[in-house]
Amino acid sequence: MFTYIARRLTVAVPTILILITISFVLMWSAPGSPFMGEKLPPPEVMANLEAKYGLDQPYWKQYVDYLTNVIFHFDFGPSFKFKDRTVNDIIAQGFPVTLTYGFWSFIVAVIFGVGLGVTAAIRHNTWLDYLSVGFAIGSQSIPNYVMAPILVLVFTLWLGWLPGGGWEGGTWDHIIMPVIALSTSYFASIARITRSSMLEVLNSGFIRTAKAKGLPMSRVILKHALKPALLPVLSYLGPAFVGMVTGSVIIDQYFSTGGIGQFFVNSAFNRDYSTMMGITILVGTLTIIFNLLVDVLYAWIDPKIRY
Amino acid sequence: MKIKTTLMASTAALLVLSGAAFAASPMAGETLAADQTFTYQDIDESPSIDPGMVEDVSGSAVVRNLFEGLMNQDADGNLIPGVATGYDLSDDKMTYTFHLRADAKWSNGDPVTAGDFVYAWRRAADPATASPYAWFVTDITGIKGAGAVGSGDAAPDTLGVEAADDQTLVVHLERPVPYFAQTVTHATMFPVPQAVVEAHGAEWTRPENIVGNGAYVLTEHVPQERMVMERNANYWNDGETVINKVVRLIINDETQAFTRWQAGELDLVGVPTGQYLSLKEQYPAEIYSNPRLCTYYYNFNMRDNAPEWMKDVRVRQALNLGFDRTVITDGILQAGQIPAYTFTPPTTAGFTVPVVESAAMTQDERNELAKSLMAEAGYGPDNPISAEILYNTSEGHKSIAIAVSQMWKENLGIESTINNMEWGTFLEARGAGQFEISRAGWCGDYNEASTFLDLYGSGSGYNDAGYNSAEVDALLAEAKTAEDPQSLYNQIETIAAADAPIIPIYFYTSVGARQATLKGWPDNNVENAWYARDLYKVE
Amino acid sequence: MYPDKTKMESLAEATNLAEVKGRSLWSDARTRFARNKAAVGGLVVLIAILLFALLGSFFQAWTYEAIDWKLMGRVAQIGGPSVENGHYFGADELGRDLYARVVQGTGISIMVGVVGSLVAVIVGTLYGATAGFFGGRIDNIMMRTVDVLMSIPFMFVLILMLVIWGRSITMLFVGIGLISWLDMARIVRGQTLTIKNKEFVEAAIAVGVSPFTIILRHIVPNLLGIVVVYATLLIPGLIMAESFISFLGLGVQEPMTSLGALIQAGSKQMLYGAWWQIAFPLFFFLATLFAFTFVGDGLRDALDPKDR
After folding, report:
1. The total number of structural domains that make up chain C
2. Taking burial as the number of CB atoms within 10 A of a residue's CB, which of A5, C66, C186, C220 is the most buried?
3. Strand order from edge to edge, sheet including B168-172
């Protein structure tokens, strides 16, 4: 087990290095400059800006400097766009936001997804099954940029229950709509995986035996069927959790949360290289950690798996 | 003889008469609301709110609330006193002496001195600061030695500006610049507190560090979410300020912002593209459209790498004539934009738009002329041309490009493709001349025609068309020192209209929705320079 | 909405099993598929949508790029669906015919999904089969590479590529496909490991058939079932990915369009009266996603009898 974890961790390091390298190469080949506005600064200012951010150095030196700062000082450098912020500042401010609404979305998605999936499996091939599956696919398929304006129309303008956006430190009323919009994009997958693995478990020998012994259905499900049925769900939850806590550009833009999700895309558009790199590394690292965590958890729950 | 400009006295008199000059001044019969919080929307976070570094329009608005320059603008864009009570202008019009008020203070209680301006201007021009707006000081203001400072050939302290004493700032110009006094209302020319800037470096504009001399101080700033500014008790005119708190919310999606405005969460928002007319019917008192100092146009590529047909002035002229601008202003934008046939907007101070030939025709006449020009140039169904329109990704630009290309197709039989690029890539392609026709917009940096016409100069860094006319260059040089440049400006516009290096499309308006309770908005200020201290909210 | 890995593995076992027992996998599957109401329904809808995308343009009164100048500027008031003026689905925000645009957009969206899915399946199958067939060090390196690539946020890389090299429909197809070949490679590798030890493969190796020919002739055909199911279930996810790219303004170039682009444009208008601009594209979008999902699920259930 420990050797397994150790082996996985040794893979993690080159993975992150490759990630940084890919981003660096893409950045260098990108046309446009982070300092370009509609009014292009004169060459002498441009030169100074490039000197200030080290862009006048040869590529290999920028690369080495960057790696050194990231690895030894945990410093992602200053943002190219926001003059009074470092990338560390941006992450420190935006990540807690997405972490908060992402975490709640995760909880909601798991509860809803598993509930819907189990219901559909128990009532296999009945209208309830079709309805659950239909609801899951439907809510996942409606793009968030359609869902968000409708949520605000209903909850803010018509009912006046919730503020239409903002974060204000993350009070509950600012969290609800982002959570609804984000969790619907994930719970359908959870529901579908739960449903099919539950169906399989319900058809297996030991459940048939349990049922034959006359145990009540609810007890069979909860005591015997749920745990093995959720194993496949677990492997989906790792990437899903990372996806949710790093937020979504649509959620951040439509609900003005100030979260990290929008920087992911906007920094590429703004040529804010340092922010882009910082967030790529953050997401990559989280993905590696949670994939590992899920695998360890998997091994721990399912004794059949040996590493 | 020195011309003594006593702005303070004249405006004070005006204040008594009209009751509305440079502070929030409720009319008789209006009851002030109990909650004087002004909440407004911006589309995107500003890269900086440091006066020396600010580069976007919405960031400049923040700077105007947190800092104050020598002069301010009133609701009509006229100059009124700010930190300075007025200025003297020398006979040769090359020396400005500003008199600073003694009671102007920074938010930490220190007095605002002439030295603060000297420091700020040197800092903005200094290439070591690498301000994206350094060019404003070095190229636009005409301050003596600014060019050399900007290129790094001279030390920043050689800039032609000095503090004669704490209350007297003397500015030496290289040449008479008729609009110089206007430039000091620009955010780049605002003072910065030297001690604070030096103590905190780039982080001095954070709420915990910032010290300003404006009517408000920054108390909270969450990038991409919100910014809160509260009243500065040390501001010299705090007694006449009504709004207690200014909240700026960043809402990227205009539909979302408008719904929140409808729900009463905001006092001021933008109006979603293309919805002006129908929303105006619904909210006649709240939705407004004010003229602005901006022009929307297409560049032709006038460089050697352009396709052969584009080098023919008759074809360029045909494209310029062969589409109906009112389809764009009335059909797509719908918010009072004005069709443009020349470059400088009619709202420019002291400028009358010359009537060029194409402006005087009906659209049918234009189409006829365009067709005959095409035939004359030898292009038609048997020798068709295809053009590519390049624009940066945006709903509005897309709609206009689609409409123009469809009209060219129907009127002239030109097959055009439209190509959008994301902003950074677009700027690179346009700047390098890698396009056939490219979309552009230009807003005046100060309210005088040269801020537009300079773009026709072959040496201008913003002449994206690559237009090169010796005649225009000579006229531009002459206009710089001319007593009354209007006739020169007319000539430039007429020559450019004949050469057609660009297709002027329309003059912008600024469109927004504000709650009926919000008063004091400067509707006639074409530079859209608003100050929260002039606003107030009623019951 | 990407295919569920575990189920794919179980399916892989099942197809393998079927092959071993010498049953006619495909004929059994056809019977089971025909009994699955949801899957048959999905197939019918899918065929209808494909016909709409292919033949819809023969019934249009306007081309997808022509502007109806009479409507421009008043679309919300008079641009609704109408048979008289030929705009069966109404007009878009510029006065272009929405019917013609939905026909065009449905075609593009399905193409992106299908081509992207083909790219993913082809790359994934060849990669996985190669790794599995050669085994040993090559397998180790190839699969560690897959592990590494799995932690890279590919959507982000795709966005960067579209930003850098400019948008093109080829880039969209290839890029979207490359996002999702990794799972396929893993599953196929596992399968190949099993198939590799079968007599017919060993025989082929013995007579000196080149490894590449063995992979193409003997291994890949035996993976057909799983490939078809994976490809079908991948399509809805890719169509959704395209709609996200369109939201960012990096999708297909105007005046061409996709369902994602139409929905995005419609979402800007829906609160201001022009309901048809969101309703029609969203309807076709949802119908397409449902159809592909049901057909994919049905195929999988049909090919994997263990689920019954």
Report:
1. 1
2. C186
3. B3-5, B84-89, B95-100, B168-172, B161-165
Query: What is the reported pLDDT for C7?
Result: 59
Give B254-315 as a DSSP string: HHHHHHHHHTTS-SEEE--TT-HHHHHHH-TTTEEEEEEEEEEEEEE--STTS-GGGG-HHH
Chain B closest CA to A154's CA: distance in Å?
10
- Cα atoms in the Cβ-side hemisphere of radius 13 Å centred on B533: 30
Neighboring chains of B (3 or more beta-carbon pairs < 8 A): A, C
What is the predicted pLDDT for the residue at C40?
A: 92
Which H helix or E strand runs over B187?
A: none
Please tell me the distance from the alpha carbon of residue A226 to that of residue A194, in angstroms, as a whole number: 9
Pairing of strands B95-100, B84-89: antiparallel
- For A90-148, the pLDDT digits (tens) are 999 999 999 999 999 999 999 999 999 998 888 887 888 888 888 888 888 889 999 99
Q: What is the pTM of this model?
A: 0.89
Peptide bond before residue C255 is cis, with ω within 30 degrees of 0: yes
- Angle B7-B12-B14 from CA coordinates, rounded to 5°: 100
Cα–Cα distance measured from residue C121 to residue C235, given in angstroms and rounded to the nearest whole number: 11
Specify if C5 maps to a domain: no
Is C156 a member of any domain? yes
* % of chain B at pLDDT higher than 70: 95
Q: Rounded to whole angstroms, how far apart are CA atoms B203 and B50?
A: 10
Contact residues, chain C to chain A, C-beta under 8 Å: 1-2, 4-7, 10, 38, 144, 147-148, 150-153, 156-157, 159-161, 163-164, 236, 240, 243-244, 247-248, 260, 263-264, 267, 270-271, 278, 282, 285-286, 289-290, 293, 306-308
CA distances to B298, B400, B431 from B397, in Å: 11, 5, 18
Rounded to whole angstroms, the Cα distance separating B442 from B353 reads 17
Say yes or no for a CB contact (<8 Å) between B461 and A36.
Answer: no
Domain-located, residue C3:
no
Average pLDDT, chain A: 84
Which one, of A89, A87, A84, A99, lies nearest residue A257 by Cα?
Answer: A99
CATH number for position C114? 1.10.3720.10
B53 SS3 class: coil
Query: Which two three-digit tokens encode residue C90?
Result: 């109404």
Query: Is the ipTM beyond the 0.90 threshold?
Result: no
Q: Give, for B68, the enclosing helix (H) or strand (E).
A: none
CA dihedral of residues B363, B365, B367, B368 (deg, nearest 10): 170
Structural domain that includes position C183: 26-307
Task: Compute the distance between CA of residue C242 and CA of residue A78 in angstroms, rounded to an integer.
Answer: 33
pLDDT in tens, C190-213: 878 878 888 888 888 888 888 888
Residue B168 near residue B98, CB atoms below 8 Å: yes
Give the pLDDT confidence score for residue B496 in this predicted structure: 94
β-strand B386-392 against B437-443: which pairing, if any?
Answer: parallel
Under an 8 A CB cutoff, do B441 and A166 touch? no
Angstrom distance (rounded) from CA B501 to CA B313: 9
Residue C132 in domain: yes
DSSP structure string for A126-171: SHHHHHHHHHHHHHHHS-HHHHHHHHHIIIIIIS--S-SS--TTT-
**Would you call C153 and A287 a contact, using CB atoms and an 8 Å cutoff?**
yes
CA dihedral sign, ordered A193, A196, A202, A204? negative
CA dihedral B194, B198, B201, B205 (to 10 degrees): -30
**CB-based contact A47:A56 (threshold 8 Å):** yes
Q: Can you tell me the mean pLDDT for B77-93? A: 92
